[in-house]
Amino acid sequence: MPTRLFVATPTKLLTFADCKRKYRFTYLESPRPPKGPAWAHNTVGGIVHEVLADFFGRWPAAQRTPDAVVERIRTGWRNEGFRDEAQSLEWRDRSTDMVLTYLRDSDPYYEPRGVERTVGFTTERASLRGRIDRVDERPARDGSGGTELAIVDYKTGRRPLTPTDARTSLAMALYVLGARRVLRRPCTRVELHHLPTNTVAAADHDEASLARHQSRAEAIADDAAKAEHHWKTGLTPTQADEAFPPTPSPLCAWCDYAKLCPQGRRVAPTKNPWAALEDPEPTLDD
Ligand code: SF4
Question: PD-(D/E)XK endonuclease-like domain spans which residues (predicted)?
């Protein structure tokens, strides 16, 4: 019998690598345990992503104006996670400024190769897939006269990003491999577009760095597949706690399941839902 491939996104793999208890709550428990309240920084990030997806992926060139962006953010805004209405409105304005600044020099006729594009590829043991914020197709830098792809990921957290962040991101490397497979174009370039500073942290992969990321992904997938197999044998609560132990760390302050996890709360008390707007949130490789 052929072995069934383990199906995963980068987020799923990284959740398993970071904390097996969180993985159990997120992907295995049914019904899924209730999450904590919404985070304001996720509201900001979600709306910014939605607007940029509309701008590059759905709107015709004639609609791509600053007024349309302002209106889209105003009508699509949500108050989830903010301290109060005043803070929500302040961040609506700040988000609008961020997006307008980012788009200031963009060509309204520019058509990316993909927007919120799902890509995937299989290895001998895993089926890995994910959704890319934007895939650009640009003139190839090797002088061949052809084109190449660039993987673009929008970031809205406070911490400025570096080329090392782009190079070491498992998700971005898997997107490169998925884009090559699905779109059948050369691709080495990964870019983190950091809207709060309007900067781009870019890196180029080579075959060795992609192979390293793929090996890491496969190793995590193998362990997760074994853990899921164990889960399906039917575990008592004590056995489940042993098989999926907590990994307390500073990240616990931002965990959606912290209220179910005394070990995590002891290490890092849960933050206010709006705290990341003021403090740098941890690096989340999603
Ligand atoms: S609070 Fe921390 S240890 Fe507990 S489930 Fe969340 S990430 Fe894991």
Answer: 9-262
The domain total for the chain is 1
Pairing of strands 147-155, 187-194: parallel
pTM of the model: 0.94
Mean pLDDT of 261-285: 83
Q: What is the CATH number of the domain that holds 164?
A: 3.90.320.10
Residues with CB under 6 A from ligand 1: 19, 21-22, 246-248, 251-252, 255, 257-258, 261, 263-264
Pocket test for ligand 1, best of 11, 19, 251, 270 (most atoms within 8 A of CB): 19
**pLDDT category of residue 284 using cuts at 50, 70 and 90:** very low
Determine the distance separating the centroid of ligand 1 and the alpha carbon of 248, expressed in angstroms. Answer: 6
Please give the residue range of the domain that contains residue 125.
Answer: 114-213
Q: How confident is the model at residue 4 (pLDDT cuts 50, 70, 90)?
A: confident
Q: Is residue 253 a part of any domain in this protein?
A: no
